[in-house]
Automatic annotation (TrEMBL):
This is LysR family transcriptional regulator. Residues 1-58 form the HTH lysR-type domain. Belongs to the LysR transcriptional regulatory family. The lineage of its organism: Bacteria, Bacillati, Actinomycetota, Actinomycetes, Micrococcales. One of its GO terms (molecular function) is DNA binding.
Length: 315
């Protein structure tokens, strides 16, 4: 019994027929049928019931399906590991604050493990360092909206609700959800002039409500921690993604989702014109890591990763 036999068998099951399995495998239908016959000769028993119009597994086929899928997964994983181990080079990966940092740490640790010959150089960016052409300075960026103004390749790491940070002293702090109309009546925390206009515009009620102007109060804030402090002090509300509450919310800070507002996405992004085979491989592996490590928890043990995540937490 060879992997090509198992590959044909699983393809017939998953694609519900010999013709579609052949198209998936880029083989002729007779070639797929021949592989199934060879498999049955090796096993000494049929794996499909030929008396039905549709694909029906025999008892032997049912018992084979699970182990066959595991064997194919193991073979693909081994092949991918060999290919990734051969990848080499240096990559600069930057991280913007306010992302889902529970995800960032295990993602970076696992990427470093999967690419042992790649030198990852981590860079922590403050909000004031963002600009539309940031991808000219780094190979990869973990960020959320607004995205750099360039042709980009994106891998979504997380999608989560958008809401407002509310002082516990406000009556709205106990609400399950708030409308834009309710929030527009309240003052918002002032943002520092050093924060790029694109970020201020995106994370504001003015952007979400097509131009409503709101009152802004308090000392200017230039990052999530300062914003939390201003909210806790009662100067006003602040638009934020749900993860900000988990990372920075404490004491008098409450997070309340906004009704009818699109989710915010954390992404791994690179410029199209710098998308080498290595960068594309990192995108693919990042998607696989996120799928496998959900739900994610803090972990690691890499000094480089711990340093950049700790720095980002302070921004």
């Amino acid at each position: 019994m060879e992997l090509r036999h198992l590959e044909a068998f699983v393809a017939v099951v998953e694609h519900k027929g010999f013709r579609r399995a052949a198209e998936h495998l880029y083989l002729s239908q007779p070639a797929v049928s021949a592989r199934i016959r060879e498999l049955e000769l090796t096993l000494g028993t049929p794996v499909f019931d030929r008396g039905h119009q549709s694909v029906v597994l025999t008892a032997a086929g049912e018992s084979l399906l699970g182990p066959a899928q595991l064997m194919l997964d193991a073979a693909r994983s081994a092949r991918r590991s060999v290919q990734l181990t051969a990848s080499s080079g240096d990559v600069t990966l930057a991280i913007m604050p306010g992302g889902a940092l529970e995800m960032t740490r295990p993602l970076l640790v696992e990427l470093a493990r999967r690419f042992p010959r790649v030198g990852f150089h981590y860079r922590s960016l403050g909000m004031h360092q963002w600009h539309p052409r940031i991808l000219e300075e780094v190979d990869l960026l973990i960020t959320r909206e607004p995205y750099p103004a360039a042709d980009t390749v994106m891998t979504v790491l997380l999608s989560e609700p958008v809401g407002v940070g509310v002082p516990s002293s406000f009556e709205e702090s106990d609400a399950a959800v708030l409308s834009l109309q309710q929030v527009a009546a309240r003052a918002m925390v002032r943002m520092a002039d050093s924060v790029p206009r694109e970020i201020v515009t995106h994370w504001s009620l003015t952007s979400l409500t097509n131009g409503w102007e709101v009152e802004r109060r308090g000392p200017a804030a230039d990052g999530p921690l300062e914003t939390r402090d201003r909210v806790e002090s009662g100067f006003g509300m602040a638009v934020a993604p749900a993860s900000v509450s988990r990372l920075y919310g404490q004491g008098a800070y409450r997070f309340v989702p906004l009704e009818g507002v699109a989710d915010s996405r954390v992404v791994l992004v690179s410029a199209v014109d710098s998308s080498t085979d290595l960068i594309r491989a990192i995108h693919r592996e990042a998607a696989d890591v996120v799928a496998r490590l959900s739900p994610l928890v803090l972990g690691g043990g890499s000094a480089a990763v711990d340093e950049v995540v700790s720095a980002a937490m302070q921004l």
